[in-house]
Amino acid sequence: MSKKLSNSVPTDREVVLGILNDSEDALNRLYIGHFPMVLQLVLNNNGDEDDAKDVYQEAIIILYNKIKGGDFELSSKLKTYIYSVCRRIWLKKLSQQSKKTNNISDFEDVVAVEVDVEQHEEKELQFEKMGAALLNLGEPCKTIIQDFYINNLSMQDICEKFGYTNTDNVKTQKYKCLQRLKKLFFQL
Amino acid sequence: MRKDIELEGIIEDYLQGRLGAAEAEAFEKLRTQDPAVDHKVVAHQFFLDSLTQYGANASLKHMMDHAHEQIDVDTLVDELKPHPSYIVNLWRNNKSAVAVAASFILLTMFVVYSHFGKTQDGINDLMLMRREVAIIKNSQNKLVRKFNSTSTLPRGPVIAAKFGGTGFALTSNGYLCTSYHVVKDADSIYVQNTKGEAFKVKVAFSDPQYDIAILKIIDNNFSSLSNIQYTLKKYDTGMGEDVFTIGFPKDDPVFGEGYVSSKSGHDGDTTQYQVSIPINPGNSGGPVLDTHGNLIGVITGKEHQSDGATFAVKAKYIREALNSIPQDSLGKKVVVAKKNILQGLKRTKQINKIQDYVYMIKVYN
User: Fold this and answer.
1) In which domain, by residue range, is A106 found?
2) What is the ipTM of this complex?
3) How far apart are CA B169 and CA B322, in angstroms?
């Protein structure tokens, strides 16, 4: 019943294959294609466009990780799945803000996604912890850790980037940084 | 310290599968023997997983932010935000329900109409009648007869008259009374009496408000009439009074009889009577007389659609019209007979005497 706003929405198959192959284009098109639907949902239920963005991005992350995790079975249309996830997340946020949550105006069919959302919430908590820990770590540790573990740069690259005399120094530095990060992470 | 760094290096290599087969075997052996090492491996693995997942998550968010920038959010917000009007929102959210309800109502109406068509017809008739009343209000039929066939005249113009009506003498010297709407917009007017003699007349006075016109015969062939047989009635006539008229809906005079049915005329007009005399186009301007030979009014029109509702301007306004004619323009003084010689006569005799004073008005324009 919602307005059909985008005609370049990729097919579900394209999206799944695209995400499995790390295609940024597929993600782009998926994102742009379904955003209006979620925007409509949130706007019509006591939210604004920023709320919509947050909710939608969380939903996409859930979908993305689900597809990446390999246990994704296409039991419904992706659109329905995204909508259901967003609806679930938004309902939770509304109840947290103790806003009116009954009579949510629906625009799409809904499938059960509670488990996925809860799993995601646990992970999200960890991510937040990690983000905070990294933030508290300070430079240059933060960049060294990110470069080595997230951006997968080699010891040699980091050595050159930071002007260390040899890779052993980098290793030592990285070890110290990691120890501190671990400490920060588990403390939080 | 150095040992720890080396151990971590080995653990990382082990976790990422970079150790050789022999080294890996040796390390696994160490893990099983030394719980502290094993714990370190598990903890490190968990932590690294978290870290990489965090990284993946961050890069995904970055990509999504990039995608988000391509969306024209403001336009979409305008398009999708809840409409200020409650009705529109209701419509947006319940389109399907409304559509179903509407189809159901349509179907029901269709069924009802097809089943009870006859009953509905009756009601429709009633409605129609009502509507007609509204029309009747504004449609007073002016009874000017149209001449559609050529009629030969003994004298006067040979071309056919456009309109016709009835008029009657007020004075013996040639003043006639008729309806204003009969002679309205006339180029030239002739009157023709029951003997077939036609005379040219001019309009001496016209009163559109009361629909009365006074004509004066200006034809040289006209000789004065004998005294007028009827009198103008001074007072209003009551309901139920028998009245009659003589008019020219055709080329010969036609008698029509009825009674005063109301003391007010069209739409409550108190300057008129309502009389129940069947009249036709051409009767306009005809005299309405009571059984005593008193002139009580001038036929002016009838209502569409309703039977027996004919209207006649009250005689009082004929008198007023006569009084308002400037006396010096009249030449001869207009005299209205005071004595009524028709009283007590039989209807046929009355008519015989009256019909000489009734004229057919022929209007050319």
Assistant:
1) 12-114
2) 0.76
3) 12
Identify which of B43, B61, B80 has the shortest CB distance to residue A36: B80
Query: What's the Cα-to-Cα distance from A140 to each of A106, A134, A158, A176, B305, rounded to whole Å?
Result: 48, 11, 11, 11, 104
pTM of the model: 0.45
Same domain, A165 and A89: no
What is the rounded CA–CA span in Å between residue B360 and residue A19? 103
CATH of domain B145-364: 2.40.10.120
**Which of A35, A105, A130 has its CB closest to that of B93?**
A105
Question: Which of B80, B85, B89 is most worth mutating to test chain A (most A CB atoms within 10 A of its CB)?
Answer: B80
Using alpha carbons only, what angle is made at residue A168 by residues A165 and A171, rounded to the nearest 5 degrees? 115
**Type of residue numbered A102:** N
Is A142 found in the same domain as A109?
A: no
Going from the C-alpha of B131 to that of each of B119, B126, B303, B307, the distances in angstroms are: 19, 9, 15, 17
Residue A7 covered by a domain: no
Chain B contact set for A122 (CB, 8 A): none
Domain-embedded: residue A5: no
pLDDT of residue B129: 38
* Rounded Cα–Cα distance for residues A26 and B285 (Å): 94
Cis peptide bond prior to B281, omega within 30° of 0: no
Q: Are residues A28 and B48, on separate chains, in Cβ contact within 8 Å?
A: no
Q: Which of A27, A49, A107 sits opposite B63 (nearest CB)?
A: A27
pLDDT for A11-65, tens place per residue? 777 778 887 887 888 888 888 888 888 888 888 888 888 888 888 888 888 888 8
With CB atoms and an 8 Å threshold, state whether B80 touches A27: no
Residue in A27, A46, A181 to test binding to B, most B beta-carbons within 10 Å: A27
State the Cα angle at B27 between B22 and B32, rounded to 5°. 130
Please name the residue that has the structure tokens 């009439």: B225
Q: How many CB atoms lie within 10 A of CB A176?
A: 14
